[in-house]
Amino acid sequence: MNVKKILVSQPKPSSDKSPYYDLEKKFGIEVVFRPFIKIEGLTAREFRQSKISIPDYSAIIFTARTAIDHFFRLCRELRVTIPDTLKYFCVSETVALYLQKYIVYRKRKIFYSESGRVEDLVPIIAKHNKETYLMPISDVHNDKASVLDAHKVKYTKAVMYRTVSNDFQKGENFDYDMLIFFSPAGVKSLVSNFPDYRERGIRIGAMGATTIEAVKAAGLELDITTSHEAPSMAAAIDLFLTKNGQPMLTAVEEEDGEAVSPA
After folding, report:
1. Cα–Cα distance between 168 and 171 in angstroms, integer?
2. Which helix (H) or strand (E) covers residue 27, if one does?
3. What's the pLDDT at 29?
4. β-pairing verdict for 5-8 and 30-33
5. Number of domains in the chain
6. HSE-up (13 A, CA, CB side) for residue 115
7. pTM value?
8. DSSP 8-state class, residue 226
């Protein structure tokens, strides 16, 4: 079957240079960005129930910008003073640079993985084995935390935000040929919103070990995921469409804005 409309369960890109837009131009398809889930921060009262005292830790592990936002939000709400000596260990330079929103970057001890992979952050953490580590996370266990567990990194997980279903409104169109997931919560939301999903013949794509596991646990057939050949989800979709004979637009058709299958 030819794919005409894809739902990507992520927020709409802020830049018009997203590779998903390239897919639209290449194949004459429509890509819709709509998160199946949304992030909700724990209140100060809820966090206190965890019995975690932030000042007891000398280092913080950040794997996402969302974690940074909620860490500093809770510190503010709990009236926790963050010492200048606190060390920050980030999964990537992008995440590390995001700290500038909250601290004077050049005056703090900040470390990050050059590759952007949490596996390459582990050796850096190991060199600072006298630190007490705290890792702000979502209530949904993620792949990055699993990597640290596998390498026996000693740290404390602090749930500071949760993922909740971003339910579809009654009567909202659901005419997609392909769904792309990036979290187990997104898969759960699909099952909750559309119990008849098995009958729709929709192609399923997923990224990340726990998300793929959730897809299989829900009884869905996984059609698309990342690989060495296609390291990003956009590239994986491109590869899938190409291998399955999806018609591509010619230069003339792109200008006219119409998709015409080649003869």
Report:
1. 8
2. helix 19-27
3. 96
4. parallel
5. 2
6. 8
7. 0.64
8. -
Q: State the residue range of the domain holding 246.
A: 5-36+166-256
**Encoded tokens for 70:** 């909620």
Q: By C-alpha distance, which of 149, 153, 197 is closest to 177?
A: 197
For the beta carbon of residue 196, count every other beta carbon within 10 angstroms. 6
Burial class (CB in 10 A: 0-12, 13-18, 19+), 243: exposed
- Distance CA(189)–CA(73), nearest Å, equals 27
DSSP conformation letters of 227-238: -SS--SHHHHHH
Return d(Cα 52, Cα 155) in angstroms, integer.
Answer: 12
Helical segments of 140-249, H only? 143-150, 184-193, 209-217, 233-243
Q: Tell whether 101 and 71 lie within a shared domain.
A: yes
Task: Encode pLDDT of 247-257 as tens digits.
Answer: 998 644 545 55
In a domain, 263, yes or no: no
Which backbone phi and psi does 262 adopt, to 5 degrees?
A: -65, 150
* pLDDT reported for residue 105: 83
DSSP helix/strand/coil, 154 = coil
- C-alpha 59/C-alpha 88 separation (Å) is 6
Q: Which strands make up the sheet holding 155-165, listed edge to edge?
A: 37-41, 155-165, 133-138, 59-62, 87-90, 109-112
Summarize the confidence of residues 162-169 as an average pLDDT.
77
Q: What is the CATH number of the domain that holds 213?
A: 3.40.50.10090
CA distance 170 to 193: 10
- Do 78 and 131 share a domain, yes or no? yes
Same domain for 155 and 90: yes
Residue 261 located in a structural domain: no
**What is the pLDDT of the chain when averaged over all its residues?**
88
Are residues 194 and 126 both part of a single domain?
no
Residue 1: per-residue pLDDT: 65
Q: Are strands 87-90 and 59-62 parallel, antiparallel or unpaired?
A: parallel
